[in-house]
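Quick start: read one record
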Amino acid sequence: MTERVGIYSGSNIRRTARMFGTAALVAAPLFALLGLAGILGLGSFGGTAPVEILSSAPAGSPVELRNSVHGDAVWGQPGVDLSAVTCEGSSSDGARTVDLDVGAVDGSPAEVVDAQGTGTWTRLSSTDALDGVSLVTCSGGGLQTVGVSVDPGDGKRGTPGALFLVFAAFLVVLGLVLRRTTAPQPR
C-alpha cells in the first residue's frame, strides 16, 4: 500500500523554508547597500536635490506646474522683495483659484542656483499641499521671471536609510536561522 504525499509534507515545507532563507541571505546585502545610500545621502536618497528650473515665464504670466511626487517649488528672479510678491494657483480651466503663501519653507533653501545655469533663483512658494492646481501666476516685488521646479525638499529624504539597515540585519538573522533549522539531518 502506497501513501500519497501532499504538497504540505514536512520535506516540502523544509525545502521551501530553506529556499526562503537563501533568498533572505541574498537580499540582505542589497538592502544594506540601500541603507548606506540613504544614510550617506547618495542618489535619490540625497537630502536636498539639485534644483532644475523646468519651465519659466515672465512675471504676471501663468507657468505650468509639473505636479511631481514631491510637489513643485515656485521660484523668482532677479532679487525679489518677498513682502511685495503675490502668487496665485489655478486650475487649467480657471475654475479654481487659490492664493499661495509666499516665502521660503522652514528647512528648505531660500535661494538656489539652477542646475541648467540660468542663475540664482529666490523661492517664492511651494505647491505640495494643493490638489487640482496646474498653473501658477506670480507678480510684484521686482519680480521679472517666474520658474517652476520639483520641490528640492527639506533635507529629510535620506531618513529611510537606517530602516533599510535594520531590515538587512533582520534578513541576515532570518536567513541564518532558516538555513540552520532546515539543514539536512545526519541519519
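Strands lie at 55-58, 63-64, 72-77, 86-90, 97-100, 111-113, 120-126, 135-139, 145-150.
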